[in-house]
Amino acid sequence: MYLILLIILAASMLLLTKTNIGKRALMLPMAMMLQANPNTNVTTQTGAGQDLSPEMKTYYNKNLIRYAKPLLVHGQFGQKKPIPKRGGKVQEWRRRDPLPKALTPLTEGVTPDGRKIEVKAITAPVHQFGDYITTSDVLELTAIDPIINDNLRDLGDQAGRTLDTVVRDIINTGTNVQYGDGTKLARHLLVGGETSGNDYITVKMVKNAVKTLKRYLAKKKGDSYVAIIHPDVAYHLTEDPKWQSVTNYNPKNWYNGEIGKIEGVRFVETTEAKVFHAEDLTAAGRTVTVASYTAATKTVGIDEALTVADAEALVGRKVIIDGVLYTIETATAGAASAAKFTVKETAPDGNPPAKGDIVYPGEAGAKGRDVYSTLIIGEDAYGVTTIEGGGLENIVKAKGSAGTADPLNQRSTQGWKAIQGAVILTDAYMVRLETTTEENDYGAGLN
């Protein structure tokens, strides 16, 4: 049977390969014969509704993970603890606090009471994430590129960035924060882009964070603490003469994205490091200007116009006026000099909003400047959970798999899903160092 098919195929090739039309005509039957080969990139099915073979599933799952893995930066330093199948959607971690020193001398012949172990339970929910793309039958038959592998690359990139962001956003909620060199008390006071006084990262700031970890008895991961840093921030450190490139000390086990070390901290670089970004205050501009202030009602009149959409979007937002952080409680649309908003906070004595003051968005640094997080991490600072058997999975559905939803077998889909969760275990074992850079307007949509 197979011999006859091969003879027919060979004869067809002799007749058809002389023309481009003939070459394209051969693609579909060749793809059907090659489907069982786990190393092929062809995705065409021999019949509507058929699924990929187990070998093909394994092949594509491995490739999806291969594309996603380099982007899984934040999860690599967490304490891993999978939830077993049928183990629920919440993981429980048990944290043991260090025992105090035993400074009371023992009495001869008397057994001391001993000490009870203090164990604290910490729980973390897990959630399922995923997405898919749809491919038409026409595209599958006419496209030159291998569709599934191209899709796989894009989906793997998306999955990696998604799962990394889930962990990143959780571990960036810690309260062990150092704003700039430690003299600033809040994010909205951090300065950037000025001729002097900028809060750009320095080696001294890193040493300060390390000192904090040591004071709280945070253990190192191996022989060093580790840090996750954005490229916009990293170059401030890499120019220091004490900086060691990773190629110079060549560790046995490189971390994903590792670039070098300084002052006992190994740094991992990623564009997915957290950036605190403040959106423009209105559709027409980044800032507005104070026209008037009524202390009794905490009402700020502004020179600019506000549309109804602008006013609705302002409610609940933070703003900075003359260095003071306020929360907008209500906003009223209106023409220039008629629009206004009220704030929740009472203005400090002697420093109320005044005519001509610029109102900046307040979710980031001074004047709305972007603020970058650099996490400096010790052992057991946070945990990362997954459900056993619920790891990253590639899912391919052939044309016709949707039944009556695809009556003409016109659509196939390819997607991914995964279960992910994270939790801070010991806040003191991780310092979030917040600084600015010369760069600005990184963009919330990118982070």
Notes on the protein architecture:
- The protein is α+β, with helices and mostly antiparallel strands and 447 residues long.
- It has 2 domains: 35-99 and 117-278 and 370-447, phage-related protein like fold (Alpha-Beta Complex), CATH 3.90.1690; 288-362, Beta Barrel (Thrombin, subunit H).
- It is 24% helix and 26% strand.
- The protein is built from 9 helices and 21 strands.
- The protein has helices spanning 2-16, 20-34, 54-68, 137-142, 147-171, 203-215, 231-238, 246-249, 308-314, and strands at 79-80, 90-96, 119-125, 127-136, 177-179, 225-229, 244-245, 258-262, 265-269, 275-276, 288-294, 299-302, 318-321, 324-332, 340-343, 358-361, 371-377, 382-385, 393-397, 411-424, 430-435.
- The strands form 4 sheets. Strands 5, 6, 7, 8, 9, 10, 17 and 21 form an 8-stranded mixed beta sheet that branches. Strands 11-12-15-14-13-16 form a 6-stranded antiparallel β-barrel. Strands 1, 4, 18, 19 and 20 form a 5-stranded mixed beta sheet that branches.
- Helix 1 runs antiparallel to helix 2 and helix 3 (54-68) packs across helix 5 (147-171).
- The longest helix is centred in the middle third of the chain and has 25 residues, at 147-171.
- The protein is globular and about 70 Å long.
- The model is unreliable at 1-50 (pLDDT under 50).
